[in-house]
Amino acid sequence: MDSGNLAGILDVHARTRAGHTALVFHDREWTYEDFAREVRRHARHLVDTGVRAGDLVGVSLEDSPRTLFVLFALARIGAMSLPMDARWSEVERTRLVAFFKPRLVLSDSPIAPVDRETVMRVDPAWDAAVMAAQDDAPLASGPDLPLLVSLSSGTTGRPTGPMVTHERMFARFMSQTVSLTFNAYDRFMTATPLYFGGGRTFSLSQIVLGSTLVLCPPPYSPEALAAEIARTRANGVFLVPTLLRRLLDLPEEVQASFRGLRLLISSGSPLHRHEREQVRAKITPNYYEYYASTEGGGVSVLPPQDQEIRPESVGRPSFRVEVEIVGPDHRPLPAGETGMVRYRGPGVADSFFRDPEASATAFRDGWFYPGDLGALDADGYLTLRGRAKDMINRGGVNIYPQEIEQTLQGMEEVAEACVFPLPHAELGEEVCAALVLRDGDGVDDLKARCRAELASYKVPSRWFVMESLPKNSGGKVVKAEVARIAAQG
């Protein structure tokens, strides 16, 4: 990457892999020659409309090849992308624009009037202008070239996101290549929204590596996903845990579509031990669990061969990533002790974009603190204990919700579980559990089994049965929303 620009690699692919399929979307394919040309045309049109190097540009587009062309086009001219979920409400979108102040927002859907001054509509007229544009857009170059502002999960409260440079993103791609065994001969499917950090990053990395990217954005049924994997001959796929759990309930003949996968990756939240066993037995033995964050990319990987020997962990650090567990004084703790997770590496950001106050809390002495609690064993395997902000303090005793959730998820009747605190007059906080059940509508038997498997103070004192648990676009359960619903009920 001599120019320091990821988009420059596309020009090389267009010469050396011109006829190789870069992208598959429904019944259409683009070669690398096609893909690079589309990016240069989009870049030229952006320049012609006034976008310049250093500009921050919101990308609020539906999941399609055009989103990828735009992301690479902005990268090519040295502008920064601000990925935005096209499904956000007007309030969420307005709050983000007010905080980050992008020069403009590209949108292919109606935008609230408050945003109108900054919006550039991506419509048939836009497409016609791109088609007519020359494919000669200049390639920005230089050290520390900014690439995008990658937002953390969720948009409630104060928005935060680090600015990731081209060099840092390339370091993340190389870490994925080594730790997740990516290569230029794969046909890799992204089946999550492109706004979501994992789906977007894996999509960009496959194009940079010169492999074939299969784009299969939601919504879809598990059966339709299986059919698309078979149709496109995809040999790798990235899925969120929520969808993986749905695959486990499919008929065996549908699950067979996944058996030929060389690589199945899950990220967002860890699967529980029994779920991993089922995935390897029913879906594919080539299952990798990936612990990552928007601020730093991959943190650790748990490959198939380690899932038997360290079933409760999320693996060992990714390539060129260092992980430590520290106490309140920021000093490393001995192996086995629970504390705050921090990590560093060449792909990790060093601050939040335009937010020194939030940066001072999350970034310290070259380390990033993702807000997770965990423990490292003597062999370097990391086990997560949950989010620091989710820890329950019951009468002065710290309780980690993830331990209780693992117990509940191990029960056949439980499809999903979320453990969270609610205020208690005497204890400060009490342990509560929200469940989505597969069978039955009672929890008496579940309570009894929890009392047999957990210390008495960890057993939930309040139980809520729900039809579904609220989730963000990345498939993570939004605990604050669960607690709000429970408190109202």
Report on this model:
The N and C termini lie far apart (56 Å). A 9-stranded mixed beta sheet has the order 2-1-10-9-11-12-13-14-15, with helices on both faces. The model has no long low-confidence stretch (mean pLDDT 91). It is of the alpha/beta class and 489 residues long. Helix 1 packs antiparallel against helix 2, helix 2 packs across helix 3 and helix 2 crosses helix 5. It contains 15 helices and 26 strands. The protein is 32% helix and 25% strand.
Q: What's the SSE blueprint?
A:
Blueprint: H1 8-16, E1 21-25, E2 28-31, H2 32-48, E3 56-60, H3 65-77, E4 80-83, H4 90-100, E5 104-107, E6 119-121, H5 124-132, E7 146-149, E8 163-165, H6 166-179, E9 187-190, H7 197-209, E10 212-215, H8 222-232, E11 236-239, H9 241-247, H10 252-255, E12 263-266, H11 273-283, E13 287-293, E14 297-302, E15 316-317, E16 322-326, E17 339-344, H12 356-362, E18 363-364, E19 367-368, E20 372-376, E21 382-387, E22 392-394, E23 397-399, H13 401-409, E24 414-424, E25 428-437, H14 444-453, E26 462-465, H15 479-488
Parallel strand pairs: 1-10, 3-4, 3-5, 5-6, 9-10, 9-11, 11-12, 12-13, 25-26
Antiparallel strand pairs: 1-2, 7-8, 13-14, 14-15, 16-17, 17-20, 18-19, 20-21, 22-23, 24-25
Helix pairs in contact: 1-2, 2-3, 2-5
